[in-house]
Amino acid sequence: VGSKGKRSGDEAELRRLAEEKIKKRDGKAVKKLTAEETAQALHELRVHQIELEMQNDELRKTQEELELTQARYFDMYDLAPIGYLTISEKGLIIEANLTFAAMLGVARGALPKKPFTSFIASENQDIFYKNRKELFEKGEPQDCEIQLVGKDGAFWARLEATLVQDTEDNPFCRVVVSDISERKNVEKSLLHKNRMLTSI
Description:
Helix content is about 55%, strand content about 20%. With about 200 residues, it is of the alpha+beta class. The protein has a 5-stranded antiparallel beta sheet, sandwiched between helices. The model has no long low-confidence stretch (mean pLDDT about 85).
């Protein structure tokens, strides 16, 4: 009796929904549905319910795949062997990866909203200023080699900047930072040896 009563209640609810659906579709009150019309309406509602369930399953699957992709992206971004950072048109750091923070010897959370120039050696400020100015004026990728100043002192870095825009068309630049201190030391050593040989 319980299951029969439940089934009858479900059918009554489906009938009510079917009548409302037909009423909205036809734009007039529904007085009475024939058995065939009721069966057809019930069938349509059940098919619609199954379609919704399938769509929900697909959305859930898509969401899970998106979360996995984002996790992989952030791992690649944060743990890359080179530094990545985003700088606003005003020269403020928007975000940076863990590698760049490690280069400077500071916590990544302390970098956002800081002027990037505060980490550039004073004698190289003009180089970066010119580089950034040309980037935003011409829109062409720029690169330069300057000394950055971290917690443990200065080190040579190569900056490769590209201009991009956010969803509201606001320009900002993405910068790839490579530590080239070792290469600079080798160049300095070779230059010193060449000068010695020349003098001899």
